[in-house]
Amino acid sequence: MRHLHLGKLLLVVFSLLLACTVSARKPIKTLLITGQNNHNWQVSHVVLKQILENSGRFDVDFAVSPGQGKDMSGFVLDFTPYQLVVLDYNGDSWPEETNRRFLEFVQNGGGVVIYHAADNAFSKWPEFNKICALGGWEGRNENAGPYVYWQDGKLIKDSSAGVGGSHGRQHEYVLNGRNKVHPIVKGLPVKWRHAQDELYDRMRGPGNIQDILYTAYSEKETNGSGREEPLVFTVDYGNARIFHTMLGHAGPTPEDNIAMQCTGFQVLLLRGAEWAATGKVTQKVPKDFPTETSCSLRKNYKEN
Ligand SMILES: [Zn+2]
């Protein structure tokens, strides 16, 4: 009898300990919006979910829109269950009600991650362009706002006429840190080598960058701008926490997807997403982060 009671007691204590451990880090409820993109969203949205969920920190639901040109009226989204919205969408306008609810979510301090070509979307929606700070293509030019680049230790806003958004050929390049204290980048190398990817240049918009985290030099030799381009930053938009990364052009398959397999891309996504959702970053600096001279890949989208 005594043994049985002791056994039961231990079981109860063990269960309580387990419950405490689990509740100490409840996954961040995340909504990933996709379904239309001039990119391979069929690969990117699955891979983004894997990166986020493999960390054990996020629980990702998809909102997949109807295809391009189809009836969008039923694509009305409920943001209320979520702490974080990840945008992997570049396509037809959402219904007015979804736009209204999205702005409500963001303006009430919601967390947002703008990923790669999501900043191409909705060039004619001024409020969306403020949420991105910078965007490209889709008819953008000087009317979308200044071309913002880094020079002499600060961001320059150049309002002269020109295209909004372009990139040269894909290549490996070094990211240059411009902030050492922001939680997203604290402890990460100031310079690190990104695996082969596009390097967005000549991006335009309201330019309301809050903290510029990383820039990269867009060489003329790769058909770039000859400027130091802002690629990873946070956005100044009321109470919202918005993390914008222009990295991570999707490949043809999850296995053949080098830009998203880059450890630097994945770590910044995870840290940016946690910060956007909570205002903090509790992740350690990983040992497999790229250095200035060598790339590092997580081909299975998880920490080794
Ligand atoms: Zn791309």
Automatic annotation (TrEMBL):
InterPro entries: Class_I_gatase-like, ThuA-like. Pfam families: ThuA (PF06283). Gene3D superfamilies: 3.40.50.880. It comes from the Bacteria. PROSITE patterns: PROKAR_LIPOPROTEIN (PS51257). Residues 34-276 form the ThuA-like domain. This is ThuA domain-containing protein. It comes from Parabacteroides acidifaciens.
